[in-house]
Amino acid sequence: MKNIEIKTTQNVVLQYELANLRDRIIAFLLDLACMGITVSILAAIGTGALQGNETGGVIFGTFLVCIFMFYSLAFEVWNNGQSIGKMALRIQVIKTAGGRATFSDYAARWIFRMIDIYFSLGGIASILIASSSKAQRIGDIVANTAVVKLIPKMDLTLKDILSLHAQDSYKPTYPEAKQLVEDDVLLVKATLDRYRKFRNDAHEDAIELMAKRIMEVLAIENVHPNSEQFLQVILKDYVVLTR
Fold first, then answer.
1. 138-139-144-148 Cα dihedral, nearest 10 degrees
2. Bridge partners of 15?
3. Close Cβ partners of 17 (under 8 Å, ≥ 6 residues apart)
């Protein structure tokens, strides 16, 4: 599992899990299927409507080619770095230097698709994504971008939460914790685990942001001044209230 740290314009360091080769291949195949279905349907409609109109057929054929050629570029530009395939796999193109990717960044990635994917039948892209530290193909390297997972993989289960060993005599501090769902609690525990394993500014900021977000979601006002301890209490309260 490869990760990347991105420094935002507010000087906050965020850690993302990079999309692996499998995710990117599946996203590409989904996009290819979407393009194929769309072009096939439009071609069937156009063939019937423009039968006998040679000029119209040429223009319409050019239009279909443009859809196939510019599909990925258009979606990434208009949909903040996500095509249909990327949305389905919950992955996204971002700038490795922080900030939003621009049209020129997406255009650079799109231009090098010809070499990375089409001309080499995906060979160059696959080798580079699998071997590079930031999982970048040539287009990503030129554009200074990376493809990350919006929802990181967590090798955690509810058993990990139950390992907190809540006591029968324990009285919950924040009854609102019961409103959380299992995914929320796993995310809180993963954030705490990363902070305790790698105590750096990025994970400290993550703890602060997580505590603030939990406060907002649960409408909690009386919060422990220490964010790490607050999140630990939230976990214990959740276990006691939901077991």
1. -100
2. 5
3. 1, 2, 3, 148, 149, 152, 153
List beta partners, residue 199: none
- Of the candidates 129, 149, 169, which is a domain's last residue? 149
Range of the domain at 44: 3-149
Residue carrying the six token digits 């902070």 = 195
64 in the same domain as 27: yes
Contact between 180 and 242 under an 8 Å Cβ cutoff? The reply is no
Specify the DSSP element, H or E, that contains 7: strand 3-7
How far apart CA 4 and CA 189 sit, in angstroms, is 20
For the record, the structure tokens of 73 come out as 């570029």
pTM over 0.70: no
Does one domain contain both 17 and 99? yes
Tens place of pLDDT for every residue, the chain, 243 residues?
687 877 665 555 667 889 999 999 999 999 999 999 998 898 888 877 777 677 877 888 898 889 889 999 999 999 999 999 999 999 999 998 877 889 999 999 999 998 999 899 899 999 999 999 899 999 999 999 999 988 765 555 555 555 555 455 678 888 888 888 887 888 888 888 878 777 777 778 888 888 888 888 888 876 667 888 888 888 888 888 876
